[in-house]
Amino acid sequence: MGRMVPAHTPAAAPPGTPKPGLRERKKIQTRQAIRRAAFRLFAERGYDATPVDRIAQAAEVSLSTVFRYFPAKEDIVLTGEYDALLDCGIRARPPGEPIAETLRHVTVGIMHDISAADRDELLQRIRLIRDVPAVRGRTAELTARHIDIISTALAERTGRPADDLRIRVISAAALAALQEALLRWAEDCQAASPEALIHRSMDVLARGLTL
């Protein structure tokens, strides 16, 4: 497939962004423990054969704790820690930078920043979204949330309202380009890196509706 590209500078939170407090860090750690236990069990037993109480047991938390963080089993797959990275990454880019380059830099930067273990989890997550009807059926909510995040951050950069049609269309198109790149990576993760595929998808987006 397409040529491999060098790693780009990872997306970073804007200077001066406060770090999460102890309580928030503990919440993040609990979410991650539940998610990792769930993905391990999904790999061993399959999604449908893994009840939520078994996930709670493997994560060493109560069943009520699982449901406090993830109201439905599908949310364990669909909820990640990437929302803040996406929002902060867009806001941190130079004000005069073209929107296409901002979105390219931030999405490639997030992928570059993901550890090998978390990358394996992301790959499993994408395949579950693709293959499990119950999970796939909930992706509209995830997509809408991410479009809102991108639109709000772009609106702040450009001075346009977040519900501006151009802002919403660009946000939805960028998200679709990212999703298609990640789905292609999940189909054959040896053919090209996710960063390379994101670059190619963003190239298409930057050129507009041309072939």
From TrEMBL:
Gene3D superfamilies: Homeodomain-like (1.10.10.60), Tetracycline Repressor, domain 2 (1.10.357.10). InterPro entries: Homeodomain-like_sf (IPR009057), HTH-type_TetR-like_transc_reg (IPR050109), HTH_TetR (IPR001647), MftR_C (IPR041347). Residues 28-88 form the HTH tetR-type domain. PROSITE patterns: HTH_TETR_2. It comes from the Bacteria. Keywords: DNA-binding, Transcription, Transcription regulation. Residues 1-25 are annotated as: Disordered. GO terms for molecular function: DNA-binding transcription factor activity; transcription cis-regulatory region binding. Residues 1-11 have a biased composition (Low complexity). The keyword Transcription regulation applies. The keyword rRNA processing does not apply. Signal peptide: none annotated. Residues 51-70 bind DNA. Pfam families: TetR_C_14, TetR_N. This is Transcriptional regulator, TetR family.
